[in-house]
Task: inverse folding
């Protein structure tokens, strides 16, 4: 099956040498460095490894899992081994998601170059693959896995095993019938195109065929006018349906004659429905589409907590990789805890814990390199400064010399502003958040002589007292110098004026009350809240918190008790307009799915404009007692079918999922709910549900939808299969429907023609727990929204 893609793979000497295989050292730590034999498979898409050439090999990684390849000097681990291995012989394979990097050391500079160039060539090729090429590759992967003896053909026994691997339990007689039909050569095996035909028979979509035939006069094709009717009536594309139909036929019809005659075959129709154009996520929300000229306080800002940690909060590893991953996934506010280090160099780590240390200058260099690779909008360095005066001066030196023109050192025009600047005005600028000795007004005044008086420091450290107390208690038990340490803790180092001067628009101040903030604080001052304090304030004074967040920034950070780097649900804080809700981005799960779901829109730039009622200084909105300024909506989702769901238990060949779909809504408290379908027994390949779920939402502007597929288990919690989360406002919307949902007459009385915009038939492409694509796994749905709640007269 490698022939499917080999004809399109670049012909390259490096790839040929990689397919012969080479020995390289796999490096996990300073003490774990083992020789392994790596080989690129003939399909050009997977790399296997063995202990030695000719040994038993197993998959190491797929090219589709690789994000990029870095040179050896960019790896912290390989740099630490520079005396043992020349950096020019090392390189790093960086994977999508949270999978650990793979550090390798080749036997020579030339061999390292061969693998680096060859892998990057393949990564670029995979990135440029179209939908059909992805499908071909997926088929090729399955053929490789099913062809147990690797002879290039599949017997019926191998096909039966493959079906189990593909999450399919099928009647043996029916499976054999499909096998014989596909075996046109009557050889008793399936090769190449025969396997493709077998797969097509296996993946027939009767639910899509029915939709196709409802609009096709001859059941064989959709004419241009028939396709326009479908786009208008079902997909609600409106007046531009005619132009869109021509574009879609040209994009998805596989046959040249079909394109020439402006007709769409069943294959083309299915390709369209499975494409980005048939996705639930509105394509107009993918690029930067929001107004980016409003004050910073009017945006949700993608924020990270203790960004340097890639593990837990107590003993985890500190690494610049934490900053690389956060910035590349769109984080615009990263945190840096700085302490005095040896040799006069400030270090970064989680104070009073056993986490490892990294150099502050390496963190700054990493920010300089990666800050604007994903987004041009400003990056905020949230500094937690614990350094002596001397090392603060070193901090200033690193910030100014390494960041250079990227670092914002004064107001944009040198004048005193009246509100925070906008993301647009701050493009490609790094802002420092931290303590400040004076006000911005005083900084901007021209003074002939520098003030030598040392004002009292304002602001607070966002330390986690529960954690510090725990470690101090332990250290007192263990160390005879605990009394000296207590004295050291009482000493608070002065803030270096040159570091203070780098804080312009983001001066950290202690929060006392909303009244105190209104009366004493300025718009460029920012308060930080623990999640517990912030949630308490929302309950006690939700509307005041909303109004506070219109003119001033708020940062919320996880409780110090979350030593496992777990996360809290950010939605509750977003409901009150809190802009910088900091997450432990290294930890996957529901909370990060919600976080990633919100920031998936607006080009993934890290800034999302808050709803207008959270940008109004006179807003009456209270997140706990909402009297919605917006119109409530009803959502009806018909969960139709699933496609190529992954196995949950990959170690058991015969294990097949029993999938169900759970639809969750997160928003204000009354809107937060879920419903789920029944489970389909033993079918993860093409399960059919055909069930309708109905939701009523008071404040859709704040709502997010999460579609989760789970493997039913009556004995315990259902296992996670895949998910996709998106903002309600980014669902593909349409114009008023002219007729009720097909095959759901029970809804006809409820859905009046004048009141229901239908986004129509959509595929939801599932993501892993880690947030990476599970392509081609998806669920097929029909979605309808209407304004108002059931029974409303409006």
Result:
């Amino acid at each position: 099956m490698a022939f499917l893609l080999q004809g399109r793979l670049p012909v390259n000497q490096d790839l040929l040498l990689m397919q012969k295989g080479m020995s390289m050292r796999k490096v996990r730590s300073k003490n774990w460095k083992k020789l392994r034999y790596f080989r690129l498979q003939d399909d050009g898409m997977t790399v296997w490894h063995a202990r030695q050439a000719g040994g038993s090999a197993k998959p190491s990684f797929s090219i589709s899992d690789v994000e990029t390849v870095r040179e050896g000097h960019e790896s912290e681990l390989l740099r630490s081994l520079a005396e043992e291995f020349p950096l020019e012989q090392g390189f790093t394979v960086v994977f999508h998601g949270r999978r650990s990097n793979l550090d390798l050391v080749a036997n020579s500079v030339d061999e390292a170059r061969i693998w680096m160039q060859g892998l990057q060539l393949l990564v670029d090729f995979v990135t440029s693959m179209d939908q059909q090429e992805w499908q071909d590759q997926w088929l090729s992967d399955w053929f490789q896995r099913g062809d147990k003896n690797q002879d290039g053909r599949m017997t019926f026994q191998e096909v039966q095993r493959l079906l189990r691997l593909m999450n399919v339990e099928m009647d043996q007689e029916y499976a054999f019938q499909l096998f014989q039909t596909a075996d046109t050569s009557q050889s008793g095996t399936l090769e190449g195109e025969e396997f493709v035909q077998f797969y097509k028979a296996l993946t027939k979509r009767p639910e899509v065929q029915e939709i196709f035939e409802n609009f096709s006069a001859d059941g064989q094709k959709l004419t241009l006018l028939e396709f326009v009717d479908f786009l208008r009536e079902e997909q609600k594309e409106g007046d531009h349906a005619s132009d869109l139909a021509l574009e879609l036929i040209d994009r998805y019809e596989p046959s040249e004659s079909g394109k020439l005659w402006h007709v769409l075959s069943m294959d083309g129709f299915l390709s369209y429905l499975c494409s980005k154009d048939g996705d639930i996520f509105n394509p107009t929300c993918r690029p930067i589409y929001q107004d980016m000229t409003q004050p910073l306080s009017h945006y949700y800002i993608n924020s990270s907590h203790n960004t340097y940690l890639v593990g837990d909060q107590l003993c985890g590893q500190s690494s610049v990789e934490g900053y690389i991953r956060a910035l590349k996934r769109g984080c615009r506010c990263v945190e840096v805890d700085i302490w005095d280090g040896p040799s006069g160099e400030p270090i970064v780590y989680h104070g009073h814990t056993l986490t490892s240390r990294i150099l502050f200058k390496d963190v700054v260099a990493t920010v300089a390199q990666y800050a604007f690779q994903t987004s041009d909008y400003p990056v905020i360095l949230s500094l937690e400064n614990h350094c002596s005066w001397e090392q603060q001066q070193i901090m200033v030196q690193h910030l100014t010399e390494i960041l250079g023109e990227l670092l914002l050192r004064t107001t944009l025009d040198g004048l005193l502003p009246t509100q925070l600047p906008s993301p647009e005005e701050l493009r490609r600028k790094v802002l420092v958040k931290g303590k400040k000795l004076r006000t911005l007004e005083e900084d901007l005044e021209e003074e002939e002589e520098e003030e030598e008086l040392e004002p009292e420091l304002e602001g607070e450290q966002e330390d986690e007292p529960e954690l510090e107390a725990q470690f101090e208690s332990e250290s007192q038990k263990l160390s005879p110098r605990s009394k000296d340490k207590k004295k050291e803790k009482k000493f608070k180092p002065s803030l270096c004026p040159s570091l203070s001067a780098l804080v312009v628009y983001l001066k950290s101040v202690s929060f006392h009350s909303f009244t105190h903030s209104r009366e004493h604080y300025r718009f460029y001052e920012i308060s930080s809240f623990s999640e517990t304090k912030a949630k308490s304030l929302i309950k006690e004074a939700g509307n005041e918190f909303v109004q506070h967040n219109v003119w001033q920034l708020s940062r919320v950070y996880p409780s110090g008790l979350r030593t496992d780097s777990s996360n809290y649900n950010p939605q509750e804080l977003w409901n009150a307009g809190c802009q910088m809700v900091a997450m432990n981005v290294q930890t996957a799960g529901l909370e990060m799915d919600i976080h990633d779901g919100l920031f998936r829109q607006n080009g993934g730039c890290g800034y999302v404009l808050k709803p207008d009622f959270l940008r109004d200084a006179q807003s009456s909105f209270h997140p706990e007692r909402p009297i919605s300024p917006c119109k409530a909506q009803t959502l009806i989702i018909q969960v139709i079918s699933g496609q190529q769901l992954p196995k949950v238990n990959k170690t058991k060949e015969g294990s097949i999922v029993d999938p169900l779909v759970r639809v969750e809504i997160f928003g204000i408290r009354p809107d937060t709910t879920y419903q789920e379908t029944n489970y389909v027994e033993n079918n993860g390949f093409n399960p059919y549900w055909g069930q309708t779920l109905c939701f009523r939402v008071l404040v859709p502007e704040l709502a997010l939808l999460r579609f989760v597929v789970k493997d039913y288990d009556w004995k315990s919690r259902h296992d996670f299969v895949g998910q996709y989360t998106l903002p309600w406002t980014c669902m593909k919307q349409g114009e008023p429907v002219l007729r009720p949902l097909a095959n759901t007459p029970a809804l006809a009385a409820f859905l009046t023609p004048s009141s229901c915009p239908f986004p129509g038939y959509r595929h939801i492409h599932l993501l892993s727990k880690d947030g990476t694509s599970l392509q081609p796994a998806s669920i097929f749905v029909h979605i309808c929204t209407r304004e108002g709640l059931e029974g409303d007269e409006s």
